[in-house]
Amino acid sequence: MNPAIMVRAATTADIPFLVECNAAMALETEHKTLDRGLLERGTRAVFEEPRRGFYRVAERAGEAIGSLMVTYEWSDWRNGDWWWIQSVYVTPPARRSGVFSALYADVEQQARAAPGVVGLRLYVENENTVALATYAALGMSDAGYRLLQAGFIAFDS
């Protein structure tokens, strides 16, 4: 039997783990190799400016096994913030054992308790059927939008 999953606020001591998670996620999902220095500075910047968001870390038996970041999007239509779940990563040995569900439940509980939060959002690749099924099982649904972007920083592919 697996010990319980504990979710906690990330601290600056978690930056190396968060950087490794983000680098692994980018490589696995988008086949992109991220610049580690830029990634470390970007991760640290979240701790330096809380308006940018926050990280949560999942642990089992004291070992970090997953993480995610939440960022904010103001909705004038709803006069409140959407919380965007981003940078989701679960270490390979811990996958399919409830780690993301624990992270999501933690964030959802915080969001429901925070004044002015109107809901949770995330984006997922269309072909990631495992993640889509997980998100649907947690009560999330397709928002009916396509994500478009105009990037200003090039990544290796």
Automatic annotation (TrEMBL):
Keywords: Acyltransferase, Ribonucleoprotein, Ribosomal protein, Transferase. SUPFAM superfamilies: Acyl-CoA N-acyltransferases (Nat) (SSF55729). The keyword rRNA-binding does not apply. CDD domains: NAT_SF (cd04301). GO terms for cellular component: ribosome. Pfam families: Acetyltransf_1 (PF00583). This is Ribosomal protein S18 acetylase RimI. It comes from Dokdonella immobilis.
